[in-house]
Amino acid sequence: MKKAKTIITFTGIFILLFSYGSMSGNFEQQEVTKSTQTTSKSTQTTSKPPQTTSKSTQTTTKPPQTTSKSTKTTSKPKQTSSKTKSTSSKPAQTDSKAEQDKKSKDVGTVTIGTQKWAVANLNVNVFRNGDTIPEAKTNKEWVAAGESGKPSWCYYNSDPAIGQKYGKLYNWYAVNDPRGLAPDGWILPGDADWSKLVSYLGGQAAAGSKMKSDSRWNEGSNGTNESGFTGFPAGYRVENGTFQNIGSIGIWWSPEENNPLSAIDHYLSQGSSLGRSNSPKQRGESVRCLRK
Fold first, then answer.
1. CA 102, CA 32: separation in Å to the nearest integer?
2. Whole-angstrom Cα distance, residue 224 to residue 147?
3. Residue 207 lies in a domain
4. For residues 180 and 184, what is the distance between their CA atoms, to the nearest angstrom?
5. Predicted local confidence at residue 105, as pLDDT
């Protein structure tokens, strides 16, 4: 019986040791497996940087695209400069047109024969050098200027609205002033110039009707204005300062004097002729200029 117990005891110890060895082996295999899995995870983790590096590489490829856009953008100024050239070519065309217009017509003139006359009475208040011509608004101012031999001008009835239609009236001292009443490029027609005009229009008797305007004259006194001179009946101012004969007479100074007290003028009246007379230098009359 003792032997049997002893055998059973050894057999139990042997089984116990065998079981323990098997369990230890399993534990070691599990630990190895875990280490392998951990190492694998570490390997996978370390594999991520190449992907990150790849992204960086993709990011670095963008600047060439940006540079390409810049290149396209720099090409636009060339188109703009091309437009600038086109625009700069326009002034040349404008200048050319202006030159052609200047050759084809002289604004403010009418050609009668070989002469170019202004189409309106003079309406300036300064001499050619820029000095002011005094205006005489009252009869007293007008008389004082005439008696002292000083230049002066006025509107008919001192009314600027009438002046816009008929121009200014000047005393002869303004006409004869050395500073020059006629603007640059113009002259005051002398007796010989008026005679040339009359001759071209068919003589003194026929010239008047062709020079008179076809309106503004008193009833039945309008002309044909065939010449284009457009002679309006602007009237005049006498020596004492009163105004007379608007609607029935148009009268223009010549620069020549007749004597120390009077000078030559030419006039249109209710008839069909152009008259010539001598008037006191203090009188206020119209002025019509002639191109040089």
1. 110
2. 39
3. yes
4. 9
5. 57
Identify the DSSP state of 141: H
Q: What is the mean pLDDT of each run of 10 residues along the chain (292 residues)?
A: 47 45 41 36 37 37 39 41 41 44 66 98 98 98 98 98 97 98 97 97 96 95 97 98 98 97 97 96 98 95
- How many structural domains comprise the chain? 1
Matching residue, tokens 């202004």: 118
**100 contacts 145 by C-beta, under 8 angstroms:** no
How long is the chain?
292
Domain residue limits at 201 = 114-291
- Contact of 118 with 290, CB cutoff 8 Å: yes
Does a structural domain hold residue 12?
no
**What tokens does 104 get?**
């084809």
Q: Does 263 fall in a domain?
A: yes
Residue 167 lies in a domain: yes
Backbone phi, then psi, for 72, in 5-degree steps?
-65, -40
- pTM here is 0.66
